[in-house]
Amino acid sequence: MSEPKKIIVSGKKIIEEQILDISTTLANNKYFFLTGIVYQPNGIPLEGAAIVVYEIYNDGDTENKNLVGITFTVEGGVYGISLLIDKKYCLVTYS
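^ that's the sequence the OP posted. Answer follows.
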């Protein structure tokens, strides 16, 4: 396993520059970042909703599932979670 890549920026540099543009390439492509927006029935984005994420098996059978994690929506109903590629997931939203 390779060493994790670290980018260290001093506080002085952050204060001096105010905006930093740091680009890097990550070798780990086992994950993807899923984002979305949760809406209320009236079409308004829902802030503070919980999204429970399960990994599912057996061709989408939602009875056979494993809890992956929970994320929450922020302003504008937006949420995000990092997931493994080549897996199947079921997302359940609670408000």
